[in-house]
Amino acid sequence: MRKKVIAANWKMNKTSDETRDFFHNFLPLVEGHDRDEIVVCPPYTSVDAALACSKGSNVAIGVQNVHWKAEGAYTGEISAPMLLCLGVKHVIIGHSERRQYFGETDDTVNLRLKTALEAGLTPICCVGEVLEEREAGLTDDVLRRQCVRAFHAISSKKAAKLVVAYEPVWAIGTGKTATPELAAEAHAVIRREAAEVFGEEFAANLRILYGGSVKPDNASSLMAQEEIDGALVGGASLDPKSLAAIVKY
Ligand code: PGA
Fold first, then answer.
1. Which terminus of the chain has a smaller tally of CB atoms within 10 A, N or C?
2. For the whole prediction, is pTM greater than 0.85?
3. How far is the CA of 212 from the centre of ligand 1 (A)?
4. Domain-wise residue ranges, the chain
């Protein structure tokens, strides 16, 4: 049985004060919930507040990116040792907004992924096709390419903590959700690719999350799919009640 992960991607939202407010309201709503792993990924500036508020709770804190170098002249970047020192355990890698707006490529995703795994962080590696690719029938090819390049030169032993998120770009922030069946098909493609690279046993244990307009009212039908091992939630994760409702799908 793969334990599901419900991960919140706050993107560029919430000051540290707003973060404290969120946890004040959210934690009582999910207290004692251990059916699923719960991870909240605030912006860096709110990580400290999030860690302080969630200490001793069932909610882990992650971030939204990591650089592949440990230190150096990389203005504006954050390294794995910095995250470990804070107590961060998870990191989102290769989100489509990073790919779309900040020059992230399959190769830099691979570098970040290797670094996160080396550091003992749990990476949530995002893949997904844009609308034109889906319409052109290229979804499977795109997913396979993104996975092969992301997983390049990583051993199955090193990759043990890997989590993948399937996020069709056309479903992110648009209110359009992939149907559970369509998401499950894409997940199966990703799992097959993981089996090619890391072996069948690894693939059978790999958690693949779905992301893209997950809301309280569609979470249970998505989570009912055997192929779907959790959710990466953007917009609906900003409200404590709505994230709690998704956690309790
Ligand atoms: P959304 O974002 O839930 O707002 O569609 C998901 C994501 O980008 O991870």
1. N
2. yes
3. 5
4. 5-247
